[in-house]
Amino acid sequence: MAVWKIIRETDNKGTIYKDGVPYGDLDISWLPSTIRVVQGQGDGSAYLENINTETDFVSDLSAESWHSNMSETWQDAEDAVQSPQLYDGSV
Question: Which one of 13, 19, 22, 36 is most buried, by most CB atoms within 10 A?
Fold first, then answer.
């Protein structure tokens, strides 16, 4: 199971890590604006650090409504690096 981490840097930009591999300056407008950091765990759970510094625990990160966006955004960035001739500038 992949271990995810997201760090919000500005309102709609951030860095997404998958298994320690980061891609930065990505559009994370799909992430709820109250979340500042997502710290995934090896068992699929995660800690969500909110803007107000309170932390919530979720037992299944994949159940979050924005999980597929996180995965797709990271994969688009990975694909752009692996196949730069296909990169259309949207990442």
Answer: 36
Q: Is 29 helix (H, G, I), strand (E, B) or coil?
A: coil
Q: What is the pTM of this model?
A: 0.87
For the chain, give every domain's residue range. Answer: 4-85
Inter-residue contact 66 to 32 (CB < 8 Å)? yes
Q: How many CB atoms lie within 10 A of CB 23?
A: 19
Residues 54-61: contacts with CB within 8 Å, 24+ apart?
Answer: 61/4
